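Hi Q.,

Before the meeting this afternoon, I wanted you to have the iron/sulfur cluster prediction in hand. No need to reply - just skim if you have a minute. The sequence and ligand are here:
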Amino acid sequence: MRIAEIFHSVQGEGEFSGTPSVFVRTTGCNLRCWFCDTPYTSFKAEGLQRDWQDVLQEVLEFDCLHVVLTGGEPLLQPDLLPLAHALRQQRRIVTIETAGTVFRPVEADLMSISPKLSNSAPIGLNRWEQRHERDRNRPDVIRQMLQASPCQLKFVVDQPADLDEIVQYLRGFPEIAPNQVWLMPQGIRQEELAAKGVWLAPLAEQIGYRFCPRRHIEMYGNVRAT
Ligand code: SF4
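Predicted structure with the ligand bound:
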């Protein structure tokens, strides 16, 4: 599997926000969101091929209960299946962070799905515009994920108008409870996250969704771990 980085930090988003975790960041993505905060896993993919057993060993050395398998799009990597299984055998709590466009029957304690809205379209990348638009919305994949694992849905919100699209999107998933839905401000700088949080937090509360301030950026800024 191709790995961009493995590091220990604090989960900044969603149900396990504030929880110390080991992050395994795979490299490679089938989308090209303009706001991608890990371009070294998508636009300019970096990282070496490693055996999943080698990755497992490095993760276990942190002696940390929570493990987050993220990307890029981690579900593009077939070796995610044996890695997630082995981690759970070792009693680790496994979160998988995905855009919800690829299904694999992988074990997870929490599938953290971030569906990409029309506001994610790449800018000035002719080769990717059609492909991104074709692949970003896979409700069939998300339905499979909902049946396979406990799930949360996280949406990146850039402008108040994005809320209409989210509400409309979720009408297609009546099985998703409002408290499984997290709204995150778009941004990679603390100031822009804070400014968007001013209007997004009350809007989320009004609808019954949860507001996700992206605490890892508040705490550390948008810096790479390695
Ligand atoms: S799905 Fe995630 S990793 Fe891929 S381009 Fe979009 S934000 Fe970046």
